[in-house]
Amino acid sequence: MQACRPVLPPRTALFGAAAILLAILGAPAVAQQPADTGSGEPGLSMECRVPGAQLYTAAKLGSVKAALTENRPIKILAIGGSAAPGASASYPAKLEAALEQALPKVDVVIDHRGLPGEIASGAAERVRTMVAEAEPDLVVWQVGTHDAIARVDADAFASALDEAVAWIRSHGIDVVLVDPLYTASMAADADYNRIVEAVRTVATQQQVPLVRRYEALRYLSRRGDKGEGHMLGRQFRLNDLGLRCMAEHVALTIATSLMRTDVPAEPKANPSTQPLTEPQRAPG
Fold first, then answer.
1. Hey, what's the signal peptide range on this chain (predicted)?
2. C-alpha dihedral over 194, 167, 61, 45, to 10 degrees?
């Protein structure tokens, strides 16, 4: 499913990321990067600007780099959040727009699927089914918020997430994790923060990029006098601006990670990759 194209963010949004990918693709720069008029990553729109150290952890994205080298569309499976009508329904279009600005001349195909329930209680198995159906180059996974609110055991959550990410990567598919939402009401909650930390630990162990959404939203909520209310909607969900910022943050994380990924000498399937057939969907 290819998401419809939304109204694009301001002209300067994602400019820096676009310049990065132009360099990666060997295309000439089309203009000089504008001066940064605020703190944070200049590749982001002003409303969403966060320092890189508080925004992401980069890692290699071999499958996406191979797709770029082969000049074919990048198939992305976006998991998590709500797929119901409302503000959340605009996320796939926002992510597609942000990625296509960050990756000029590249076609991006987004398949977005909501994921109700907690990873530690069986949602990881549904993720395997989604991946087997979509066969993407990259999975962008918003993970941990349901588990954190439900106060699931952090060790059980980390074990289930680590197993699911390892399974996806074993099939030659890249993964980007997006950690839980930030809200001041949960900032001092030890159980909630253990889940946030568990997502970071799994990203490090599996060597996959991480969008530090919790830290980014905390930074943005403290930057002005509006608090978190201008980013969060009802029922612990991002509003339209929050979704746009998350899309920009994901796109910048991907663009930065691609800078650190070598061009494959001869693009081909990973010889250790197993087909996404039914027997491999449920390793245990």
1. 1-31
2. -40
Rounded CA-CA distance 116/5 in Å is 26
Please report, for residues 43, 64, 192, 222, the alpha-carbon distance to residue 139 in angstroms, rounded to integers and kept in the order given.
22, 10, 24, 30
- Which residues are registered as beta bridge partners of 177? 141, 210
Contact 197, 161 (CB under 8 A): no
Structure tokens, 56: 């992401």
- Bridge pairing between strands 74-79 and 174-178: unpaired
Note the pTM of the prediction, 2 decimals.
0.80
pLDDT tens, 17-69?
444 444 444 433 333 333 333 466 667 899 999 998 889 999 999 999 999 99
* Tokens encoding 161: 């997430």
Phi, psi of 144 (to 5 degrees): 110, -25
- The answer to whether 231 touches 31, Cβ cutoff 8 Å, is no
Q: Give the pLDDT band of residue 88 (cuts 50, 70, 90).
A: low
Q: What angle do CA 207, 18, 52 make, to 5 degrees?
A: 50
- Could you give the CA distance from residue 194 to residue 190 in angstroms, rounded to a whole number? 6
